[in-house]
Every structure is written in structure tokens, then in C-alpha cells.
Design the sequence.
């Protein structure tokens, strides 16, 4: 079984969710940035600091992981 | 284009990420519960209160959404 | 007793806090928006993405719920 | 107008939401604790570490604030 | 041993991490603000609402605490 | 100047805070674990899933980073 926390072999992190995808859009604001990542059939949206978006040079087409701590995930019944 | 925040037609929520999947596992602890949801090729893991897991009667096989606020999503370069 | 997680009858969510109130103010920024909701005697303030504020067409006077995951709530002694 | 961030006169904090209430219940788990606070007509539920619940000696009847950062508050349309 | 949750003697909070430092930079955006705090050899960066930055009159040189709930801290192996 | 988001050269992450330290204590609960990390003069406390603590084999003496997203950091005036 795929084990999320050891996927990144070099420096594994406790965050249990690392979803691999491709950046569809980066919108830079003054302090924050909005990043949209396609992961399979889903779009994952992220609000990070503008500084991180700049330092990571995030741009459309980049392969990235959306990383999410398990305590931040809610469950909604369908 | 799929618009996440209006997917739930009745009472749309600002959380931008709602990933539809199937519960693979529910582990009940004393105060918290660990829930694993299969979403396409990914496993999404969630730590919620035991009380919510009980009240929602979450169990293997349930169709659910994993709901995540955009400000909780980090981006990691591959 | 009022059971928060089943209040929304259609698609109950694990987030344990859903506070019903009325929007007092929406301030739109470039990437983020600041929303103030009156809940009884309290003002609840929220920072969400600009996109969600736009898609939900949030405006002064709207009846909304402020939704908060229990793991995000701290306790301070008086 | 009530200004949340300066309410605590001694050491004001940037968290914009400080809801004053009374503890209704404290459930101690091994690592986490579940705390229920009555705030007006609402119940606010919090998941904090067991250690904080012990150190703060939280118990039914205590007057406390539920403190929540604005970036953790979602908005759901009614 | 230093006990974080009772450090602030007046109104102790359950958040277990309170790191004392000095503000190095405040960048004000429209809705959000970016604050950099030097804590020993580390720089701690924070994204708070513009309103809190204004109300607290945060500026370079101020002595502050960076306050972080334990559930928000991830662990990465070196 | 030290640039946090590119410190991890292999797969840099947008989380702006990565504090290097040594684990002082790991307490395993049923679903969650409590980890204490010494970072300079401070103790950083983290609540992660039990599964991550197990998979990362976290133990006293390990060198780790405490990783924190900027949106999770509050500022309190001294």
C-alpha cells in the first residue's frame, strides 16, 4: 500500500496528504497567492504567501504536491 | 469548468476543496478518529473528533467528501 | 440537545461548529476577502479566498453559518 | 464598536475571534481533550491537547474564551 | 521546566507554542499582512489579517510572541 | 539572508517556517501523538497522527524540523 508519509524519501514529513498534480493557475496578490493544482479529476486550490509563490517560482505547468495535514481535513456525508 | 464552492447546491461553503471518495477505514480513538478516504488514485487521511465520526456514523464504504479550506493547503515542488 | 454535525440535514459535515448569523461586512482584497458575521452578541471574522466570496456572492445582510473545525479552536482562561 | 483584538488588554493577540462562554464539558483523552463551551445560544467545541487541558485545569463551569484565528473560519450560505 | 500554557500569567491560552521574539518586518496587504519575527536564530513568518496588524500597531522592533496551536505543527525528519 | 522555503533543497515546500531541533519526547496516543521538540531555547509542541509518528519512527534524540504554515501563526503583543 502507498504510504504517504514516506513517499518523499529524503525528508519525510508527518503531513499525511501529498497529492501530486500540475499547476493550472497562479494568481499573485500583494501578500497572498492563489494556486490551482489539477490532481486527477479534481482541482485543488491553495492560498499561500506571495513570498512562497515567488521563491518557489510557481507557474502553470509545474509538477507539484499539494500537502495537507490530516487535522485540516473535514468529512462531509454525501 | 467545475466550480467547487457551488457543487453542494443546497448550502454551498467557502471551503474550496471538496474531494469525493469512498471511506476505506475508520479508526476510533478516545477523543479523535482517523478516517481514510480513497479519492481516485489517492488516499486522503483525516483526523476529526470521535464525536463527529460517531454522529455521522462513518464507516467503510460510505461515499463522502473530504473538505479542505484553501488556506490549509501547502505546495511542494517536485 | 442541539447536535451541530447533523444540523445541516442534507449533507452533514464533521466540522463541529456552525454558528448562524448575518453578514455585517465583506471586504474584497485581491486574493483574500475579510468577512464579518454577527452571531448573537459576537462578531465572527473570517478570512476566505476572494474567489469564494465572489462565487457565493456574499454581501451584507446575508444569513450564513460560520463553520469552524474543532481542532482550530483554542481555549483561554478568563 | 467592540474590537476583538484589543479586548484582552494585557497582551492582545492577532486572533480576531474571542468568544466568551462557560465550559459545559471536558472529556480527557490520552493525547487530546474535547472541550464544549456555551457561548450565548451556541455550543462551541474545541479539540486541544490533553496537556493544555490539564495545565489550565479546565473544568465544567469555568469562564473561558474560545479563541479562533480568522483564517480558520469558513462561510456557508444558508 | 518551562510550561508554555501558563507563561502568560494573566489569561493563559491552550495554544502550546508561544515564541518570544522581535518583529523584523511588517508588510501590509489589502486584507492580509505578512509579519516576520526573529526568534533566536530563526525567523518566524506569519500571515494575519490586515486589521489585526493595524489594531495591534505592529511595527519593526516590537517585542511579540508568535503563538501556534500544537495541531498546526508538522514534523519533518532531517 | 536565510530563505526558509528553499532550505530543503530537494523538494522545497511553501510552508515558511521550518525550525530545526531535537525531539525531547514522543507520547503515543491511540489516534494522535504528542511530540516535543527543542529548538534553541524554546520547546515546540506538535500534535500529529499516531500513524505518522509510527511511520517516521519518531523518538527522543532525533533531529527534525517543526514545519508550520504562515497562516497558522498568530502574533501577540508583549
Sequence:
Amino acid at each position: 500500500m502507498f504510504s504517504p508519509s514516506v513517499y518523499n524519501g529524503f525528508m519525510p514529513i508527518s503531513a499525511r496528504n501529498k497529492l501530486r498534480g500540475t499547476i493550472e493557475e497562479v494568481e499573485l496578490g500583494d501578500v497572498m497567492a492563489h494556486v490551482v493544482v489539477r490532481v486527477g479529476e479534481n482541482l485543488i486550490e491553495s492560498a499561500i504567501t506571495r513570498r512562497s509563490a515567488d521563491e518557489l517560482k510557481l507557474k502553470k505547468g509545474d509538477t507539484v504536491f499539494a500537502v495537507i495535514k490530516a487535522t485540516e481535513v473535514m468529512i462531509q456525508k454525501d
